[in-house]
Amino acid sequence: MKLKTQYTCQQCGHPSPKWIGRCPSCQQWNTFVEEKVTAVSDVLPSWDSVPILFSEITGVDTPRLVTGLAEFDRVLGGGVVAGALVLLGGDPGVGKSTLMLDVATRLAATSTVLYASGEESAQQIRMRGERLNVQASRLHVYAEMSIEKILSAAENLDAKAVIIDSIQTTFSERLEMAPGSIGQVREVASRLLFWTKKNNVPVFLIGHITKDGSIAGPKALEHIVDTVLYFEGPRQHPHRIVRTIKNRFGPANELGIFEMVSTGLRAVEKASGLFLSHSEKMSPGSAVLCCMEGSRPLLVEVQALVSRTHFGTPRRLATGVDPQRLALLCAVLEKRLGVNLWDQDIYLNVVGGLQVEEPAADLGIAAAILSSLFNRPIAPSTLIFGEVDLGGEVRPAMFPEIRLKEAHALGFKRGVIPTQPLSDDVPSGIETVPVRNLQEAQADFFEG
Fold it and tell me: Which of 397, 399, 405, 396 minimizes the C-alpha distance to 426?
């Protein structure tokens, strides 16, 4: 039998019968590597199964495995589901291994856990564990990269959870490819998916991300796993964010916030305090808005600086907000309120390095711009949220009661919100100021 080969892009997985310099799919240069084509029957094991009636399926009410790390359980939807394949991606050095070692320690308090690492030796993991004050008698560390040996050790230990660190260093002995190649990543992920569904044991994968922010390896890797988590955070700030991109067993776009301390990662209970100014009075150009990250309301401070331009075309720079959204809001403010922004440079920043994508942040951004333009501070203890359309109308936002509850818990006394029906869950200690358009909102942003 003649051995077949093909060339595969190591960035996106695009196949080609011959080598080409630039990938036609992801437009990257010199990413094609020759790989052997192996028949599926020679790689994947078989799984004996028979059709079963929907009404006869049992075990659907199996409780989730709670790690005890509240923020991590939140992003998973309440805990670890038995038989789930979870992928955690993030930049090198952001703290992925530290987080998963903490999770493994907590899970090992009640069951046997296997931590397989191809990037560190057992002694290196022990040194990091002592810094984290790891005390777990059922945590087994295995410095191995072969997926066959790792799964065999998991079965021998009767492990109830398996952690692979990382998917790029793990390889299958059946493929003659280097670890981290597209073929190896796809093969290892497929084997782990088969094993976790057959044995009903959760498996966590740690994955690195590329320069463009996507998980290294084929995009199909995110389709294979049940849950995709991104671990991110600026190096200049101590907090780290775990964001749910995909979750088959819970809500997507959930957010968990941790703080990096000398002993590892600590869960942050009142996350809104990280993104708010500690001064009692807001300065001109600052406004507080509330955005929803999954089921969690987050109060963040947005700052705007409006100054006269010295160039022919004014600049529109935004950090934490889509620059195209900033340009659109500036055009709406000029058209509907008659303010002159055509000769003004506008710089926008979200405090704390958080990325705000929700449309309900529009009204808060508009308030910050107007506050800086007129050099007038926003009224004290005022929360602002609402979506602004092209006609200058303020559209309703989802979950207004939850946002107002969070604001009241942090001491806010007033909320400029869209005109929409509210339930009886709104706290009585916060005044609501409903607005229908930008003209009404502008009058209510400032004191007096």
Answer: 405
Span 258-315, pLDDT tens digits: 888 777 788 887 777 667 765 567 789 999 998 888 778 889 999 999 999 988 889 9
* Contact by Cβ (8 Å): 167, 188: yes
As to burial, measured by CB atoms within 10 angstroms (0-12 exposed, 13-18 middle, 19+ buried), residue 114 is buried
Given phi > 0 = left and psi -120 to 50 = alpha, else beta, which region is 200? left
Rounded distance between C-alpha atoms, residue 250 and residue 177, angstroms: 36
Residues, the chain: 448
pLDDT at 362: 95
Phi, psi of 161 (to 5 degrees): -160, 140
What pLDDT, on a 0 to 100 scale, did the predictor assign at position 280?
A: 61
CA-CA distance, 212 to 209, in Å (whole number)? 8
Q: Is 313 helix (H, G, I), strand (E, B) or coil?
A: coil
Rounded Cα distance between 286 and 255, Å, is: 24
Supply 435's token pair: 């607005």
* Contacts (Cβ under 8 Å, ≥6 apart) of 261: 238
Distance of alpha carbon 247 from alpha carbon 75, whole angstroms? 9
Distance CA 225, CA 219 (A): 11
Please identify which residue in the block is written with the tokens 């502008």: 442
Q: Considering only CA atoms, which of 422, 406, 421, 435 is closest in space to residue 289?
A: 406
N-term to C-term CA, the chain: 86
Distance from CA of residue 111 to its chain's centroid?
28
Chain segment 333-383, per-residue pLDDT in tens? 999 999 999 999 999 999 877 889 889 999 999 999 999 999 999 988 899
Give residue for tokens 């308030």. 367
Q: What is the pLDDT of residue 287?
A: 93
Q: How many beta carbons lie within 10 A of that of residue 431, not counting itself?
A: 12
* One-letter identity of residue 91: D
Burial of 136 (C-beta count, 10 Å sphere; 0-12/13-18/19+): middle
Contact 256, 241 (CB under 8 A): yes
pLDDT at 148: 93
CA distance 61 to 309: 62
Joined tokens for residue 351: 């405090």
Whether 186 contacts 221, CB under 8 Å:
yes
Low-confidence residues of the chain: pLDDT under 70 = 1-3, 37-49, 59-61, 210-220, 234-236, 273-274, 277-280, 448
pLDDT value, residue 211: 57
